[in-house]
Amino acid sequence: MSLRVFIPADSSAVSVGADAVARAIAAEARTRGADVAIVRTGSRGLFWLEPLLEVETSDGRMGYGPVAFEDVPPLFETGFLEGRPHSKGLGRIDAIPYLARQQRLVFARCGVTDPLSLDDYRRHGGLKGLARALEIGPGAVLEEVIASGLRGRGGAGFPTGIKWRTAAAARADQKYVVCNADEGDSGTFADRMLMEGDPFLLIEGMAIAGVAVGAATGYVYTRSEYPHAFDVFSRAIERARAGGLLGTKLLGSNHAFDLEARLGAGAYICGEETSLLDSLEGKRGQVRAKPPLPAISGLFGKPTVINNVLSFASTPWILEHGAKAYAEYGMGRSRGTQPFQLAGNVRFGGLIELSFGATIRELVQDFGGGTRTGRPIRAVQVGGPLGAYFPESLIDTPLDYEAMLAAKGMLGHGGLVVFDDTVDMARQARFAFEFCAKESCGKCTPCRIGAIRGAETVDKVVAGRERQKSVQALRDLCEVMTDGSLCALGGLTPLPVLSALDHFSEDFMKPRTRAAAE
Amino acid sequence: MAARAAFDADLAKRLIDRKRSLPGAALPILRDLQDHFGYIDDAAIALMAEALNISKAEALGVVSFYHDFRRAPVDGKRLKLCRAESCQSMGCEELVAHLETRHGIKADEARPGAALHVETVYCLGNCALSPAALFEGEPMGRLDRSALDGLVERATGRTQ
């Protein structure tokens, strides 16, 4: 039997040379007459180790990383195919503390299996959640999802089961299940990793939702910035159809469910659910006023369950192991696990799936090992471009929905971006407004006009023009945007701005050269 | 990335017809048009409006809303450079400045005959390996000045 070597095809791994390493291994194995089968997997999410090779031995999977293609001949020389030690050797992959300390429910298979092999998926526990959903029926599925305490992982944190129950109760000739895979927040990549590394899990989760609410059609809306995820996911849909995971008879039952993957066109706002629905309908991606809720009148005016990738991907585990087992993870009203994403200026960036309640410090220090530049950490932005910047003094804040709100931040999609002490927080505050101005859909005035006025006002503060008055104007403007915007883009842009102003006010008061202030 | 063809109304029509019956067909159609021609020609907007039974104004409204859709062709290989927070924390703005001072390439500026077109994007989901980019669709992580210089060379064809 051939020896199996695993190399990620995840686009992050490819961005640092995984394809070249895979080619070098294939060539070297040919030259040496070694019987090697290369399996391209997703990523384990230990990105500083990418490209991360694994080889299957009798002692388990042994890791080597980061491997450059010139490391390949020496690796063969030292006997990495038998798992022998090498300067790039990491030992047993599942004993690496960064992985061993995680609680991987959603990401259990990512980096382990061949993402496009349905057999591999099944062998590693896939399809059990859907099988149970089909067995217990829609009403019991809704009960399970509600009892699990699962909340929307896209950022809003709305209880998933309640959303599903609303759509299930709506009467209509047609209902939809829509996956929001428009993961636009900087510092987040969990949706991308999952679509590239374990796409059948998302398909299974959406099929469970289809069974629960009585919908036979689903859409997955992905960003154009994720061409690889779109490609892998589209191929996974075809294989799922061929394997009975999608189609007129789901796993041989009488439930029908099919999916279509759609690509966005570079608009951040389409990650907002109503804007995404308009975009799917072929319109400008403008935000809709709510009510009506999408669960009652969503895509093409029909009842629609719209959830984030990670919300759907959490449901197979819940169905397989039961709501109670899931709810045992987490703290307070945040139950289960969250795949956190550690990014930016950090030594050990990656995907860290943990129960809710871990602190920012545990992630950026214990897992992250401080900054990549080696300088002190000055700020951590939690929750993407609409999330607050946390200073050192608040670094022990636990990562759960309520604790984040209490600290005037938000968890969002679970991304953390680390900045060292060279960051200019006035510039970051200005950028928050610039980004909002660029990406505003233009429907409501506080967001459309407020973002532009906000950037101008930051400039006035920094330039020291009527500073007191300008700071007050900035705070007033933030209040108007928070209270008066139609959606989270205008409504939450004040979070990064005010957190910068509150915790890093010195950056707004620095004397500057004329050029820097312009 | 597919080679881009000169605009051809017959081909545009065929592309539109292929997807016109999809629910919410506008984005899939516009993506196909842009993939083929590298931009959305005004004539194609009119053809799409007719096929989908919407007004030309409505069709134009869709095209103009999305950052991806261009209304004129752009020369050069494409570098989508991330300038969002995670890449900012690792110095992407210095890379933008380097492109301009060292190579005379301004982000988001279309120049006729240019070998490389640099386009600002916000997040490529490669944030643990910032700064990140996509060069002709190929993911790039942990970019630095010398890696950028290499990409400029590849684009200008001075080396492989």
Task: Please provide a written account of the structure.
- The complex is a heterodimer of chains A (518) and B (160).
- Helix content of chain A is 42%, strand content 16%.
- Chain A is an alpha/beta fold and 518 residues long.
- Chain A has 4 domains: 3-100, 3-Layer(aba) Sandwich (Glutaredoxin); 118-327, Rossmann fold (3-Layer(aba) Sandwich); 333-420, Ubiquitin-like (UB roll), CATH 3.10.20.600; 425-517, de novo design (two linked rop proteins).
- In chain A, strand 10 and strand 11 form a beta hairpin.
- In chain A, helix 6 runs parallel beside helix 10, helix 7 packs across helix 10 (199-213) and helix 9 crosses helix 10 (199-213).
- Chain A is globular and about 75 Å long.
- Chain B is of the alpha+beta class and 160 residues long.
- Chain B has 2 domains: 9-65, no CATH class; 77-156, Glutaredoxin (3-Layer(aba) Sandwich), CATH 3.40.30.
- Chain B is built from 7 helices and 4 strands, in the order ααααβααβββα.
- Chain B has helices at residues 9-19, 26-37, 42-52, 56-65, 85-89, 92-103, 145-156; strands at residues 77-82, 116-121, 133-135, 138-140.
- Chain B has a 4-stranded mixed β-sheet with strand order 2-1-3-4.
- Chain B is elongated.
- The chains are: A alpha/beta (518), B alpha+beta (160).
- At the A-B interface, helix 1, helix 9, helix 11, strand 12 and strand 16 of A face helix 2, helix 4, helix 5 and strand 4 of B.
Within CATH, the superfamily of the largest domain in chain A carries the name: NADH-ubiquinone oxidoreductase 51kDa subunit
Strand content of chain B: 5-15%
Count of folded domains of chain B: 2
- Examine the secondary-structure arrangement and name the CATH architecture of the largest domain in chain A: 3-Layer(aba) Sandwich
Oligomer: heterodimer
Poorly predicted ranges of chain A (pLDDT <50, ≥5 residues)?
none
**Count of runs of 4 or more consecutive helical residues of chain A:** 24
Structural class of chain B: alpha+beta
The total count of strands of chain A amounts to: 16
Terminal Cα span of chain B: 17 Å
Question: On the 0-100 scale, what is the average pLDDT of chain B?
Answer: 95
| CATH topology heading of the largest domain in chain B | Glutaredoxin
Helix content range of the residues of chain A, please? 40-55%
What is the CATH first-level class name of the largest domain in chain A? Alpha Beta
Strand order of the largest sheet of chain B: 2-1-3-4
Task: Report, as a whole number of angstroms, the end-to-end distance of chain A.
Answer: 66 Å
Largest interface: A-B, 63 and 43 residues
Strand content of chain A: 15-25%
